[in-house]
Design brief:
The protein folds into two domains: 179 residues, Medium-chain alcohol dehydrogenases, catalytic domain (Quinone Oxidoreductase, Chain A, domain 1, Alpha-Beta Complex); 137 residues, NAD(P)-binding Rossmann-like Domain (Rossmann fold, 3-Layer(aba) Sandwich), CATH 3.40.50. It contains 13 helices and 18 strands. Strands 3, 5, 6, 9, 10, 17 and 18 form a seven-stranded mixed β-sheet that branches. Helix 13 links the parallel strand 17 and strand 18.
Length: 347
């Protein structure tokens, strides 16, 4: 089969012919039809410090995907929950099920997590093998949406963790694809006001398509003044910090109302200096670090939004490429000229 492989400690990926993956009795073999390209894949392509410290090539890349079940191990087949031909996606974090976090309902924080496309072979390939427990039937959700349910799930987790969003004011700080999805999730969940900010006007346009009521560009707008104006001087109930930039953290803490909440998804590349007394303690803020998707409550919330039509993520998808077009896919992401990028692998 074809697969995009990180063959060694250097930039790029190679399209190679590799064996179809073997699968165990409780596993499922999935024919991949579409896969999402994300920032993690860019890090791997560039072979930056994170990638060089994490990956052990050779490894097939890709962790966002959807496809069709091609075969099942005997135990997975006997359970009768999945069958050949089912359209599916999958949770890409494979957990141990035995550590404290797994045993207390926090599997997304498993200490032994192995991520497809990072720690084991992934989905930029014609086929991928997955544990049946990780497989999510699409049940009417289109395959191209199934291929990006991983990052949509990150947005769902970020927006819905904490107090009810209904009637709340929400500030999405950073409008990459997940930030844009977060705007849609907040609107679907009944937020009274969704404000989005980013330096990239293309991304702000996508945020508006996803339901942002107000979009702000920090290079042109006084973001904090506008937020205070929009909220009657109170500040925002919920901040979804997606940028991971120290300036974004400072703005998030400043824009939050007293007793507000800041859910942090963006991953910093350097340290942030925080005045905890002024910005956190005396404001009574609640901070929450978002890691992946909760297993499996986030998936249930997400699929309900998608199946009901309350959330349509497709406006964020701006580019589609064949598997062999990975260099072009990476290029548009690096240029900042794309929203969500999908690799179309099979019909």
């Amino acid at each position: 089969m074809r697969a995009l492989v990180k063959t060694g400690p250097r930039p790029g990926m190679e399209l190679r012919e590799v064996p179809v993956p073997t699968f165990g009795p409780s596993d499922v073999l999935i024919r991949v039809k579409a896969a999402g390209v994300c920032g993690t894949d860019l890090h791997i392509w560039e072979w930056d410090s994170w990638a060089s410290n994490r990956l052990r090539p050779p490894v097939v890349i890709g962790h966002e995907f959807a496809g069709e079940i091609a075969d099942l191990g005997p135990q997975a087949a006997a359970e009768g929950l999945l069958k050949v031909g089912d359209k599916v996606t999958a949770e890409g974090h494979i957990i141990c099920g035995h550590c404290l976090q797994c045993r207390t309902g926090h599997g997304h924080l498993c200490t032994r997590t192995r991520i497809i496309g990072v720690d084991r072979d992934g989905a930029f390939a014609d086929y991928i093998a997955m544990p049946a427990t990780n497989v999510i039937p699409l049940e009417g959700i289109p395959v191209d949406i199934g291929a990006i349910m991983d990052p949509i799930g990150n947005a769902v987790h970020t927006v819905l963790e904490g107090d009810a969003v209904t009637g709340s004011t929400v500030f999405v700080l950073g409008c990459g694809p997940i930030g844009c999805f977060a705007c849609g999730v907040a609107k679907a969940a009944g937020a009274s006001l969704v404000v989005a900010s980013d330096y990239n006007d293309l991304r702000l346009g996508l945020a508006r398509k996803m339901g942002a009521d107000v979009t702000l560009n920090p290079g042109k707008d006084d973001v904090l003044s506008r937020i205070l104006e929009l909220t009657g001087g109170v500040g925002v109930d919920l901040i979804c910090e997606m940028s991971g930039h120290p300036a974004g953290h400072a703005q998030a803490f400043a824009a939050a109302r007293l007793g507000g909440r800041v859910n942090l998804l963006g991953t910093p590349s350097r340290s942030t200096e925080v005045d905890f007394a002024r910005d956190i303690i005396f404001k009574g803020l609640t901070l929450y670090g978002v890691t992946g998707r909760k297993m499996y409550s986030t998936w249930h919330q997400m699929t309900r939004f998608l199946r009901s039509g309350q959330l349509d993520p497709l406006p964020v998808v701006t580019h589609r490429f064949p598997l062999e077009g990975i260099a072009d896919a990476i290029a548009v992401i690096k240029e900042g000229s794309a929203g969500k990028v999908i690799l179309e692998i099979a019909q």
